[in-house]
């Protein structure tokens, strides 16, 4: 989309724009129903005045190629498109609308889109800042790698044997006893959830989760027809689980350590209670433990460490600690279950990147990973402290929060329910991107997930200032 | 599973085996319904006599932990398992059996399993031999890579921008005109099919394919409820398509260049006929073109090159040419469709390995890829020639085949319908692994997909000799 009209040509700028858009529709690149960028965006892209864009669009509307929808924008029409290309193209829009997998929520699509821009302050991003990634050390480790030719072929279904053995050694320090055949390498934790969804659950199965949940911002279970049930962990948990489970399969999804988005860390007792409540109803637990390496202080072992009967599917990853670009995580569970999920992974993508697996193996075995983690935790703690100080100075009359125990996030709660789509968009117009609480709990308009892991110190300062101004304005309305 | 009983211990070997198996069941590693390895396999693993294994299994059957099913094998019982662990473990077997995704066919699971073994001659493997992979050159290229820190973060939804631009340049040589926003990087061609299945089709959608099809050996569409319809490409094609399509969405899957498994190459006319027949019914075409770089002689452009209205979804990959371990392929189609599929990919695995993407970019841009391909084609041609000579000497009275035009395969057709599961297993007992025709067409008992790409020359010689002997034996029965 980097095309610009050529000022040297005889054809007018407006006419060149008309021809360019017509060509996009003709060759099926903009299908019927496509929403055009705003006039402002197009003018910027083309490097022309907005009035030139406006006149070009009017011309295209006049010939019936485009249409305006009030308050919504300009779209490629269904009619004109048919006329233009004589009903030969597949009706892609219908294909998209009737398909199985749901699109991301609009807010999340916008987040994905704006995270690609350089000029946006990202206050919510669940990712290490580029400066915190050990880029040079990873580059250096590439120079130390050497492969057996077989390593570059198709992987074994469960992933690199040496890596699986190294992961067993690694998780033993967390109190987890596992054998390599109980480990499957996955392309990140999200893929582990995807495999569990299609490999262990049927349509209509229940996925229990806490009311505020990372799972509401992604769709691995919803997209294949599972029912999400929010449940509070209280004294009635065991009873509620047994009542709600009934005849369908069920599974409990939990992030007991540095919960996303709330940052909470469960006590040992809370972990035990969940384990026992699920055991009583024979409900498997998915323990998502991708943040535990980022704890500022040691905590009790994960639920998986108390699992004596193969009830817990445990998920780990290097995405939050080393590099999300590697796309390497792991899933630990009973051998039969792991073999089943590995079989599906083979049918899905024939395994994860062999090179990425070799890199992670090298980092685990050489001790580079552990020493990197020590320095990373210190950086994150400094960032958390810096951010808290800003909050303390500016936000203490309008919001509350807990001191972070590790990871990336402060779950910032405003006194008033201000955080809606409009508020999100208003900040976006000022180049500040937040992760609003409602993507984790549709009912929640009090919270934002503030991340101190991604933005620079200057950006944190500036972004929080803009956030503060918008909140104050909203309060005055 | 490398455990062996310890001969130094006071406990008898038999008793140690009983305890080991009990522990596996207790800790949920062998769940109810698990089939045990054969006595012969267990005896080999344990390094004990088969009678010792037999006595241990009898003891476990006596206490009700295991049970024999006649003609099928020994299984972990449902009862004893309940008794042992007091109904606390989730009933994993039920989870697995009722879940959405189908397991691989047993023959394919066996192929996946035996492909991991060193002592097996692989006559069917659709993969380059380790000696054909440019391992050292890939290692060397790792030393030349340097990353922007952002490159190691989460990828943009459609994948590395530079790689997508390089792919556009690359496919232009095939006559395909595409812009980077029409390209989505995927973790291999199979993932592209998976994304199309859930992102563009609804349950019950029709996937048209040729009667003999790679798609019958994998499940991207079947597992999400699509209906596979085999169709012959003949003069009635247009009519058949329009009749069969009716109200459901439909898509046509084709491998026009070096078809898997048959090795066929369509003529320009055949491609045009399919394109027009599908256009008449507005059916999108999935053009799987992962083998075209391996053509021994140039052929006509792909269907995508004649696609003027965004009707063809084009799939490419480096898995067959550079390294399957990289897990990098690409999908090219109309922008709206690509954005949709990229959105789903973000929900599935947050993108492909950043390092793998950088490697492929480097190989494309530096010209290393093209010069590697030239040498690879020569190696494959030599291997094809060698294999044909063996066939000419030994198989010409019992089978027919066509001279390969490129790629990996000879679609070897035996005069008699000998190739069934029993034949497959018989060869496997002699450490020879084949890809029988029935995994590509359940009705087909005449063919095997012979690959000259994987086995060494010696192995090809020896494997084909064993294959010949088995065929002759079967003919005499």
Automatic annotation (TrEMBL), chains A, B:
Record SUPFAM superfamilies: PLP-dependent transferases, Winged helix' DNA-binding domain
Cited Gene3D superfamilies: Aspartate Aminotransferase, domain 1, Type I PLP-dependent aspartate aminotransferase-like (Major domain), Winged helix-like DNA-binding domain superfamily/Winged helix DNA-binding domain
Gene Ontology molecular-function annotations: DNA binding; DNA-binding transcription factor activity; pyridoxal phosphate binding; transaminase activity
Cofactor: pyridoxal 5'-phosphate
Regions annotated as coiled coil: none
Pfam families: Aminotran_1_2 (PF00155), GntR (PF00392)
Key words of the record: Aminotransferase, DNA-binding, Pyridoxal phosphate, Transcription, Transcription regulation, Transferase
InterPro entries: Aminotransferase_I/II_large (IPR004839), HTH_trans_reg/aminotransferase (IPR051446), PyrdxlP-dep_Trfase (IPR015424), PyrdxlP-dep_Trfase_major (IPR015421), PyrdxlP-dep_Trfase_small (IPR015422), Tscrpt_reg_HTH_GntR (IPR000524), WH-like_DNA-bd_sf (IPR036388), WH_DNA-bd_sf (IPR036390)
Residue ranges occupied by any HTH gntR-type domain in the UniProt entry: 11-79
Family: In the C-terminal section; belongs to the class-I pyridoxal-phosphate-dependent aminotransferase family.
The protein, known as: PLP-dependent aminotransferase family protein
């Amino acid at each position: 989309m980097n095309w610009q009209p050529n000022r040297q040509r005889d054809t007018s700028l407006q006419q060149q724009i008309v021809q360019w858009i017509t060509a996009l529709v003709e060759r099926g690149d903009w299908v019927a129903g496509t929403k055009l960028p705003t006039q402002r965006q197009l003018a910027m892209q083309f490097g022309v005045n907005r009035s030139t864009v406006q006149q070009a669009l009017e011309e295209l509307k006049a010939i019936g190629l485009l249409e305006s929808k009030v308050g919504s924008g300009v779209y490629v029409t269904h009619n004109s498109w048919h006329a233009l290309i004589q009903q030969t193209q597949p009706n892609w829009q219908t294909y998209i609308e009737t398909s199985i997998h749901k699109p991301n929520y609009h807010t999340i699509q916008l987040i994905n889109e704006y995270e690609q821009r350089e000029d946006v302050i990202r206050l919510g991003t669940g990712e290490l800042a580029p400066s915190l990634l050990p880029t040079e050390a990873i580059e250096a480790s590439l120079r130390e790698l050497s492969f057996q030719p077989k390593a570059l072929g198709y992987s074994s279904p469960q992933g690199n044997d040496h890596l699986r053995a190294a992961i067993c050694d690694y998780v033993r320090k967390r109190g987890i006893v596992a054998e390599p055949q109980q480990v499957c390498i996955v392309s990140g934790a999200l893929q582990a959830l995807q495999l569990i969804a299609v490999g262990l659950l049927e349509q209509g199965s229940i996925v229990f989760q806490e009311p505020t949940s990372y799972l509401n911002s992604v769709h691995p279970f919803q997209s294949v027809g599972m029912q999400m049930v929010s449940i509070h962990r209280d004294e009635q948990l065991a009873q509620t689980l047994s009542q709600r489970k009934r005849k369908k399969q069920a599974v409990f999804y939990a992030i007991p350590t540095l919960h996303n988005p709330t940052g909470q860390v469960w006590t040992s007792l809370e972990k035990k209670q969940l384990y026992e409540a699920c055991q009583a109803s024979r409900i498997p637990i998915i323990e998502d433990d991708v943040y535990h390496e980022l704890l500022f202080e040691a905590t009790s072992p994960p639920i998986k460490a108390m699992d004596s009967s193969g009830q817990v599917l445990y998920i780990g990853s290097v995405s939050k600690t080393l590099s999300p670009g590697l796309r390497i995580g792991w899933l630990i569970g009973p051998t039969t279950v792991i073999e089943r999920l590995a079989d599906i992974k083979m049918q899905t993508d024939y395994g994860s990147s062999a090179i990425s697996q070799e890199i992670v193996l090298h980092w685990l075995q050489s001790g580079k990973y552990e020493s990197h983690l020590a320095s990373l935790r210190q950086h994150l703690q400094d960032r958390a402290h810096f951010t808290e100080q800003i909050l303390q100075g500016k936000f203490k009359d309008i919001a509350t929060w807990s001191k972070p125990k590790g990871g990336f996030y402060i779950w910032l709660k405003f006194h008033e329910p201000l955080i809606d789509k409009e508020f999100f968009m208003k900040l976006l117009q000022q180049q500040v991107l937040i992760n609003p609480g409602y993507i984790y709990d549709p009912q929640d308009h009090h919270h934002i997930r503030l991340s101190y892991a991604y933005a620079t110190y200057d950006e944190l300062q500036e972004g929080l200032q803009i956030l503060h101004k918008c909140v104050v304005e909203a309060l005055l309305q």
